[in-house]
Amino acid sequence: MRLKKLTLREIHLPLIAPFQTSFGTSNLRRILLLEAETDSATGWGECVAGEDPFYSYETVETAAHILRDHIWPILKKHEINSAAEISDALAPIRGHNMAKAGIESALWDAEAKSLNIPLWKYLGGTREEIPCGVSIGIQPNIETLLAKVEKELSAGYQRIKIKIQPGWDIKPVEALRERWPRIRLMVDANSAYTLKDAAHLQQLDRFYLIMIEQPLSWDDIHDHATLQKQLDTPICLDESIHSLADAQVALNINACRIINIKMGRVGGHTQVKRIHDLCMEKGIPVWCGGMLESGIGRAQNIALSTLPNFVLPGDVSASKRYWAEDIISPEVEVTPHGTIKVLQAPGIGYEPRRDRIEALTKKKEVLQ
């Protein structure tokens, strides 16, 4: 398999409602799509880098630069026996995992299509239906939060995650537990706290949460181990885990009991599988986090969520939760009991809607 042409498209996709976390509010997603044409098939990937360097140092601009000026020169002269080789081929480029994941995922899609098999099966997935949860941003008040959670539970979602930050943590969780004592509930801090907040965070133990996600610094593992010793609630690491080595360190020092695996954050499906396998060996459950992906990135997340150790409901929800109209056909739908049925078509299983993609495209670059 040889990469013959790579098309980069930046599309602008408005969210149906603002999404607020501890580091900002998103109203519109600038999304970098990758269309990779090989000598046997065409595959699609999505780079999940954001508009600003807040979740990660990567942005849409840095990813486009790395893809154009560094990744493309390496891959255009590289004979690719398998998409699984891409990760090691790009190892000389330090970091920039979101850019790497974008091209690698497109080539996984292309390879699965060339073999006429679904990507999820090609990755080693074992389930044909995956459980779904939702992520709810910081709300203006408790009443609005309760109304949003009511709506998502009515839609069938199996797990609720809410974003928290200092000043918006104990009271919203308490209100949710009073209203719904038995729902699967977790919180995500996006690095909003420090070790000085340990006593405050201990108050969350009484609410029987599935996990507290990334309470401390985005690049920390050590202090999370210190905090985990002081909490009954499992810590889940997200931003801190960029590689297999990071995961090994975190598990060795008991910095967490759960890991959120995001393909873009760790560099692609190959790295996802390596971290997944390590966690399964160690008895540590994993789940798939979301990055406000379009349908193309969402389809890639569905595929990796079929791997056997993705045992917790991920942030892989219906297209209509975020977009008035997605860029794939069919759109991603969630069943009344909170699952997504995995499609059996080759590759990612969903067809990119070229007409809509072109209408949304603000920048386009063809590399060949």
Task: Please characterize this protein's 3D structure.
The chain has helices at 60-75, 86-89, 97-114, 119-123, 142-154, 170-179, 198-202, 222-228, 244-252, 263-266, 269-282, 295-304, 354-360, and strands at 3-21, 24-38, 42-47, 129-131, 133-136, 159-163, 185-188, 212-213, 235-237, 258-261, 286-288, 328-329, 339-341, 351-352, 361-367. The longest helix has 18 residues, at 97-114. With 368 residues, it is α/β, with parallel strands linked by helices. The protein is globular. The chain folds into 2 domains: 3-116 and 353-367, Enolase-like, domain 1 (2-Layer Sandwich); 121-341, Enolase-like C-terminal domain (TIM Barrel, Alpha-Beta Barrel), CATH 3.20.20.120. Strands 5-6-7-8-9-10-11 form a 7-stranded parallel beta sheet. A 4-stranded antiparallel beta sheet has the order 3-2-1-15, sandwiched between helices. Strand 8 (212-213), helix 8 (222-228) and strand 9 (235-237) form a beta-alpha-beta unit. It is built from 13 helices and 15 strands.
Keywords:
368 residues; 4-stranded antiparallel beta sheet; alpha/beta; Enolase-like, domain 1; TIM Barrel
